[in-house]
Specification:
The complex is a heterodimer of chains A (169) and B (273). Chain A is mostly helical and 169 residues long. Chain A is built from nine helices and no strands. The longest helix of chain A is centred in the first third of the chain and has 23 residues. About 12% of the residues of chain A have low confidence. Chain B is an alpha+beta fold. In chain B, helix 1 packs parallel to helix 3 and helix 2 packs across helix 3. The chains are: A mainly alpha (169), B alpha+beta (273). The interface between A and B is large, with 63 and 53 residues.
Chain lengths: 169, 273
C-alpha cells in the first residue's frame, strides 16, 4: 500500500495485473462495448494512479474503492454519450423494459453481477439495472418507475440481499 | 432496530456497491466507526464482491496496459516531485466535448433562427405576390367573359342583318317628331315573322317613360313591345308580328300603353314591296 502511495511503478503494475480484469468486467457490464470499455479502463487506472493518496483504508477495501471509480467513470460515460445519441429520445421506462427483456441476448450479460440479475424478480432486476448499471438516484428511480421513494429503498436493499446470496453460491 | 437487524437490512450491500444516499452513507460510516460488527459485515461483503469480481474477470486488450503506463509516465514528467492535486470527483471524460457541442449547438440554433426568419419573410412576400396575381387573373377572366358575351352578341346581330330573308324597315323621324333626327330600323324575319329592332338614334327618355314599337296592320296600330334604349345598342328581339305594312315608335308611360299616343310619335317606316 505504501509503495502504491509512493506511486511505485512496480506496485502499480502489480495492481494492474491483479485487478484490471475484474475492473474491465464491471466497465464492460455497464457500457456493453469492448472498445469503449478499453478506453474507460485507461481513464480508470490513470485516475487510480492520480488519486491513490485520497484512498482511506478505514473506509473500505482498495478493490471497493477502485470498483466505485470504475463504475462512476462508466456511468458518466454512458450518460454523457446518451446526450449525443438518439437514446435520449426514448422514454426511459421503455428503455428499461427493453433492457430487462434482452438481458440474455448480449454477451456481456453472461458475466459478473449482470449474470446474477437474471435470477432476480423483474421488479427487483429493473431497480438494480437503473441504480447500479445506470447510476440513477433513488429519487430519480421513484419518479421513473412511479413508486414511492421508501419502496425504492426497501426493494433495492432486498434485491441486493438476494444478489449477495447468489454471489455466494 | 438492534445491530444485527441493521447489519442484515441490506445497508451493507447498498453502501459497498455505492448505492446509498448521502444520509445513509454518513450513518453507515458512523456505525462502522462505532461497531466492529458492522465493520466486519462490510469487510465480509467487500471480500465476497472482490472474489466474485476476480472470478468473473475479463482480460482487457493487451495494449491498454502500455497506454496507461505511457500516460502515467507523461503525468510524472509534467508534475515532477509535486503531489498531484486530488480532484473532488472523477473528471467527466467527455466534459470538454460537451462544451464544444453546447457552443456549436447554440451557434446552429442562432443560424437556424436567422434562416427561419429569412425564409418566413420571403414566404410572406411570395404569399402577397401570389394574392396579387390571383386577383388580377380573376379580373382578366371576368373581363374576358364580358368581351366574349359582347362578341357573341355582335356575331348574332351580324348574322341576322346578313340574312337575305330579313326584311329591313327603315324608320326615320316623322315631321312632327319631338326629335326629327331620330332613326331606328326594324329587321323582320320573313319566315318566322320575328321582329328585331335596332336603334340608330333616339334621345334618352325620362325615367318614368319607355319607347313602344307598334306594327301598322291594315291601318291599325298593334303593340309590338316596349324597350329600353340601353338594351337596344345591338338588336332587341320584339314581339312576333305575322303581318304588317309599317312600323312606328312612340314614347309611352313605362310598361307601354294599349293605344299609341300619336303626338309622341318619333319615327315611322313602311314595309317596302
Amino acid at each position: 500500500m505504501e509503495a502504491l502511495k509512493q506511486r511505485d511503478d512496480r506496485a502499480f503494475g502489480y495492481l494492474y495485473d491483479h485487478y484490471s480484469g475484474a475492473l474491465y468486467s464491471i466497465v464492460l457490464q455497464i457500457v456493453q462495448s469492448r472498445e469503449l470499455a478499453s478506453d474507460i479502463l485507461q481513464e480508470v487506472f490513470v485516475n487510480i494512479w492520480r488519486r491513490i493518496e485520497s484512498y482511506d483504508p478505514s473506509r473500505g477495501r482498495l478493490f471497493t474503492w477502485m470498483l466505485n471509480i470504475a463504475r462512476n467513470a462508466s456511468i458518466d460515460n454512458v450518460r454523457s454519450k446518451g446526450f449525443q445519441n438518439t437514446q435520449k429520445n426514448q422514454p426511459i421506462p421503455e428503455n428499461v423494459n427493453k433492457l430487462g427483456s434482452t438481458v440474455t441476448q448480449t454477451n456481456v450479460d453472461s458475466i459478473g453481477i449482470r449474470k446474477t440479475l437474471e435470477k432476480l424478480r423483474p421488479e427487483h432486476r429493473v431497480l438494480i439495472e437503473l441504480a447500479y448499471f445506470k447510476g440513477y438516484t433513488h429519487e430519480e428511480i421513484a419518479e421513473i418507475e412511479d413508486i414511492p421513494l421508501g419502496t425504492v429503498k426497501t426493494r433495492i436493499r432486498n434485491a441486493l440481499l438476494q444478489l449477495r446470496q447468489f454471489l455466494k453460491s | 432496530m438492534n445491530l444485527q437487524e441493521y447489519i442484515s437490512s441490506g445497508i451493507v450491500e447498498t453502501y459497498v456497491l455505492g448505492l446509498a444516499g448521502t444520509e445513509e452513507s454518513a450513518e453507515f460510516e458512523r456505525m462502522c466507526a462505532a461497531h466492529s460488527e458492522v465493520r466486519r459485515a462490510r469487510d465480509d461483503f467487500e471480500r465476497l464482491l472482490e472474489q466474485q469480481a476476480l472470478d468473473q474477470a475479463v482480460e482487457p486488450p493487451l495494449q491498454v496496459k502500455a497506454k496507461i503506463f505511457s500516460r502515467v509516465e507523461m503525468e510524472k514528467e509534467n508534475t515532477p516531485q509535486t503531489k498531484y492535486p486530488v480532484p473532488k470527483s472523477i473528471p467527466r471524460i467527455r466534459a470538454g466535448w460537451s462544451r464544444y457541442l453546447a457552443a456549436a449547438s447554440l451557434l446552429l440554433l442562432a443560424v437556424s433562427t436567422a434562416l427561419n426568419y429569412y425564409f418566413f419573410s420571403q414566404y410572406k412576400k411570395y404569399i402577397l405576390k401570389y394574392d396579387e396575381l390571383l386577383s388580377s387573373q380573376t379580373q382578366l377572366v371576368g373581363e374576358n367573359k364580358v368581351l366574349q358575351t359582347r362578341l357573341q352578341d355582335f356575331e348574332q346581330t351580324l348574322n341576322l342583318i346578313r340574312d337575305p330573308a330579313m326584311v329591313v324597315v327603315k324608320m326615320p323621324g316623322v315631321p312632327n317628331s319631338p326629335s326629327p333626327s331620330s332613326l331606328a330600323t326594324v329587321y323582320w324575319d320573313s319566315r318566322s315573322r320575328d321582329v328585331y329592332l335596332m336603334i340608330n338614334n333616339l334621345p334618352l327618355p325620362a325615367g318614368d317613360k319607355q319607347y313602344q314599337l307598334w306594327a301598322l296592320v291594315d291601318g291599325k296600330p298593334v303593340d309590338a313591345g316596349v324597350f329600353d334604349v340601353k338594351d337596344a345598342l345591338s338588336l332587341v328581339k320584339m314581339k312576333n308580328i305575322p303581318k304588317a305594312q309599317g312600323f312606328a315608335i312612340t314614347l309611352e308611360k313605362r310598361g307601354g300603353s294599349p293605344a299609341p299616343t300619336l303626338d309622341a310619335m318619333y319615327v315611322m317606316g313602311k314595309v317596302s314591296g
